[in-house]
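Weekly puzzle thread! Below is a chain. First person to post its structure in token form gets bragging rights.
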Amino acid sequence: MRIASASKSMSGMSLVEATIILMVLMLLTGVLAPSINDYINDAKHVKAKEDCEAIGQSVARLVRDVGPCAKWNGGQPCTKQNRVDILFSDGKVVSTDDLGPQAVDFQSNEIKDSVINWGCRNTQNADHLEHQLVRNSRGYATPADKNTFGKSGPQWNLGWRGAYLSPVIDSDPWGNRYLVNSVFLAVAVDANHGRAEGQRSGGWSKDTICITGGPNNLYESPFAGSQNGGTQRVGDDLIFVISGDSR
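Winning reply:
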């Protein structure tokens, strides 16, 4: 009798019991799925914000060490032709389809191609962040050059002291590029004389920012911010302000 009872208690679950367990699991999955998705989305937002802040702070340290603008040739002055006007990370190449209706072209005679936007891919405009922040690919003077040239960076004993970021500078959590409108870091030394926007005595009233298109994969914020200066954030773009008003 004891053996039979033990055998009965060790027998497998019935089809009804298995069905009930599966229904409970499905119910729990349905209840927990939104919470899990919210957690994943929140984590993506946090990562994008932290990445943009890290890039922004690294750009600020770069120009503190090497001078007021990112350059194609670190040993030459910050001219319109030598200034890098857009910095970008890895990620999907930005096309006009990736721009929101308010991300209008910014026009100025004080940039080398006169018209610029987040979608500019011309090599005369854009440079990968890795060349500027990870590898000294543009030939900026370094502190070690002081022994050869007597001075290196803008404060004589400074220069390129990277890496400012650890490689690889990847895309944002949604596969987009991080972008920096580095044109507004400084006016060019060959800018027009005058006090107008972007001219030598006028400076820029525009913010230099790091931006990512966010979950909807659209860069919606204007390249040059609001008409009166400052940052104009639109849609779900994530933005970190690097500097503002170079006047």
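Puzzle host: Confirmed. Bonus trivia for everyone else. The radius of gyration is 26 Å.
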